[in-house]
């Protein structure tokens, strides 16, 4: 299995691959539950909680500055893919349209299909994070989270929520799906924050 689908990083890439990770030869798809099928005509991203309620449509997203991103991608199941090429909208550009209460310190990411994951406002607002709608020059496939997913390169990929459709701003940390099931609340790859101390 290791040689067929994954391999150890070469010396020149070893500083880009977190501990315990192997490089994937393709781009694996890991999903809990069924894959939602959402059209760009119906996709929307809602904002609520400790923020002024707002709904972004596909047209709203496309009207924002579009950027190309190249980022490494690290899955908690121990595979990484380097230099993944995306197109999308910076989180900071989208958040320029959102009024957030200063008391908000955490966010619950909500997705079509019912998946949730939590992230701190500090981790969310980093300059390198983005909402992706294109992967390697093609519309983001549904199995990779299309039409839109969040990408948070500095955390394990379960924080880069597929099929995202909601941002709920919170005054306290709440746990999302995998966090309730034993995964770490933050998920930083270089620290191997895979599971909580009370988890598996």
From TrEMBL:
Q: Which domain of life is it from?
A: Bacteria
Ranges for the Oxidoreductase molybdopterin-binding domain? 33-178
What CDD domains has UniProt attached to this entry? arch_bact_SO_family_Moco
Note the InterPro entries from the entry: OxRdtase_Mopterin-bd_dom, OxRdtase_Mopterin-bd_sf
**What Pfam families does the record tag this protein with?**
Oxidored_molyb (PF00174)
For this entry, the protein name equals: Sulfite oxidase-like oxidoreductase
Q: Which organism is it from?
A: Okeania hirsuta
């Amino acid at each position: 299995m290791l040689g067929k689908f994954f391999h150890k990083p070469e010396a020149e890439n070893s500083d880009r691959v977190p501990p315990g990770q192997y490089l994937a030869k393709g781009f694996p798809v890991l999903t809990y539950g069924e894959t939602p099928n959402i059209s760009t005509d119906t996709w929307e991203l809602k904002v609520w909680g400790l923020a002024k309620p707002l709904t972004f449509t596909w047209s709203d997203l496309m009207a924002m500055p579009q950027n190309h991103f190249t980022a490494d991608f690290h899955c908690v199941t121990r595979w990484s893919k380097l230099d993944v090429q995306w197109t999308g909208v910076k989180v900071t550009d989208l958040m320029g349209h959102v009024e957030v209460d200063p008391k908000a310190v955490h966010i619950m990411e909500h997705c079509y299909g019912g998946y949730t994951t939590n992230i701190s406002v500090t981790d969310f607002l980093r300059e390198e994070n983005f909402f992706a709608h294109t992967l390697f020059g093609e519309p983001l496939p549904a199995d990779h989270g299309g039409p839109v997913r969040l990408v948070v390169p500095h955390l394990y990929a379960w924080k880069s929520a597929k099929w995202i459709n909601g941002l709920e701003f919170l005054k306290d940390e709440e746990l999302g799906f995998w966090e309730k099931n034993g995964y770490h609340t933050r998920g930083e790859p270089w620290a191997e924050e895979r599971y909580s101390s009370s988890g598996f």
